[in-house]
Specification:
Layout: H1 19-38, E1 42-43, E2 49-51, H2 52-58, H3 64-69, E3 71-74, E4 80-83, H4 88-97, E5 107-116, E6 128-137, H5 142-158, E7 164-170, H6 174-191, H7 197-205, H8 219-223, H9 234-249, E8 255-256, E9 270-276, E10 284-290, H10 294-297, E11 305-311, H11 312-323, E12 341-345, H12 351-363, E13 368-370, H13 377-386, E14 391-395, H14 397-402, E15 405-409, E16 415-418, H15 423-438
Parallel strand pairs: 1-5, 7-8, 12-13, 12-14
Antiparallel strand pairs: 2-4, 3-4, 5-6, 6-11, 7-9, 9-10, 10-11, 14-15, 15-16
Helix pairs in contact: 5-9
The structure holds histidyl-adenosine monophosphate.
């Protein structure tokens, strides 16, 4: 007797993306690739596994990500490795390691892929999630920040996201930020006793992190703390003013949000997030900012940088919500590519001609399905209809004898005899006719 095994489930916080949803992901990704090409970004692919040290140094030793959320393990040779919780540090490492800076100029790189953070799973928050991100390396010019923000706004509009808000701040550079942190630390001494445990600890270890605390009861206290924008030195102030004035010139709306210091330590100057009303508690669709000191933190020459990461899981959710599950937007069409033809063959003699026709049509890029077993005509037409096929091509004894196959238009019910060599052309012209009618 065979042993009964317990079923195996996916790991908590991870999920399968099934064909009924992957078409939405593909459209989001296709549109992103188009946008990146238009703004002259090129793709980079970095490993999912990195040395733990990379994230400890760049994201920061006292951040939630590094202290609580990383999937870190000792490799068989005892080296500490981590599944990447984000990709900016990896992109900068790859830029330095491959000496891309030798090519000179500004590098505009983009990536897409899974990230891993051991957070408490909920709607829009997963332990394996996906990001689409981009980084501009090699310039600290404020116009870079503005151009990237413009690209993001255009992209979100194009994929059909409505009601989103660009939140903007500056965290200065290390020198003026240190001044601000002193002031913040002092202010926190008198209020920290009323705050959550994490805030009490961070008031001493890393006061900036107090600002991105999400605990409800702490919010009024945080709102009353000193604001970093009042402590920027003249150069950081000028950079921020230039970003905001260029945003205005380009008609890009933003909200200045002084507490937006972001949950990663590498930021300098501009920080931003875009939130969407279509999401619940996890309403940040994307986040990013400038990180002019990151390259040095990981042992490279000074290299200013600016970038963002879109939470793809959240964008897919928000777009589906904003466009209605089947609305007429470009992202709301029926799932999957349309099946053009189902080949219904009857009798063993029809198998080889049916397979030959399927191969020819597929070779020309048409989507074709074929039954594996001979079946009665009625049953085959039922399958064609269930699969949503535009045509059924019928090959039986009669068709083999005449050398012409029956091509049935499943949407109109009409049927015509067509020579096998002309079928591709025939279905193409009919499909085009139909599209023109619909338009
Ligand atoms: P981040 O704010 O940590 O920034 O993540 C960016 C986005 O990823 C978030 O706004 C959110 O949409 C999504 N995200 C984060 N964690 C999760 C999760 N557990 N489940 C689902 N979605 C999530 C970064 O990662 C920086 N690397 C951004 C950046 C690029 N800064 C400069 N360049």
């Amino acid at each position: 007797m065979s042993k009964a095994f317990e079923p195996i489930h996916a790991v908590k916080g991870t999920r399968d993306l099934l064909p009924s949803e992957t078409w939405r992901w593909q459209k989001i990704e296709d549109e992103a690739r188009r946008m990146f090409a238009a703004y002259n970004f090129r793709e980079i692919r970095t490993p999912i596994l990195e040395r733990t040290e990379l994230f400890a140094r760049s994201v920061g030793e006292d951040t939630d990500i590094v202290t609580k959320e990383m999937y870190t393990f000792a490799d068989r040779d005892h080296e500490s490795l981590t599944l990447r919780p984000e990709a900016t540090a990896s992109v900068v490492r790859a830029y330095l390691e491959n000496r891309l800076y030798n090519e000179g100029g500004v590098h505009k790189l983009y990536y897409m892929g899974p990230m891993f953070r051991r957070e408490r799973p909920q709607k829009g928050r997963y332990r394996q999630f996906y990001q689409i991100g981009a980084e501009v390396l090699g310039s600290d010019h404020p116009s870079i920040d503005v151009e990237v923000l413009e690209m993001l706004v255009l992209y979100l509009e194009r994929v059909g996201l409505k009601n989103f808000t660009l939140l903007l701040n500056s965290v200065g550079h290390p020198v003026c930020r240190a001044e601000y942190v002193k002031v913040l630390r002092r202010a926190l001494q008198s209020v920290k006793a009323n705050m959550c445990e994490d805030c009490q600890r961070r008031a001493d270890t890393n006061p900036l992190r107090v600002l991105d605390c999400k605990v409800e009861a702490d919010q009024p206290i945080i709102a009353g703390l000193p604001k970093i924008l009042d402590y920027l030195d003249p150069e950081c102030r000028q950079h921020f003013d230039r970003v905001t004035s260029e945003l205005k010139q380009r008609g890009i709306a933003y909200e200045i949000t002084p507490r937006l210091v972001r949950g990663l330590d590498y930021y300098t100057r501009t920080t931003f997030e875009i939130t969407s009303g279509a999401l619940g508690a996890q309403n940040a669709v994307l986040g990013g900012g400038r990180y002019d000191g990151l390259a040095e933190m990981i042992g490279g020459p000074p290299t200013p940088g600016f970038g963002f990461s879109i939470g793809e899981d959240r964008l897919v959710l928000a777009v589906a919500e904003a466009t209605g599950q089947a609305a007429a937007s470009s992202l709301g069409q029926a799932p999957g590519p349309p099946l053009i033809a189902y080949i219904a063959w009857m009798g063993d003699a029809a198998l080889v001609p049916a397979a030959t026709l399927a191969r020819e049509l597929r070779h020309r890029g048409l989507s074709v399905e074929i039954g594996y077993e001979p079946a009665k005509l009625k049953k085959s037409l039922g399958v064609a209809s269930k699969l949503g096929s535009r045509f059924a091509i019928i090959i039986g004894e009669g068709e083999l004898a005449s050398g012409r196959y029956q091509v049935k238009d499943m949407t109109r019910g009409q049927q015509e005899e067509v020579e096998p060599a002309r079928i591709a052309e025939y279905v193409n012209s009919k499909t085009k006719e139909r599209t023109e009618e619909v338009l």
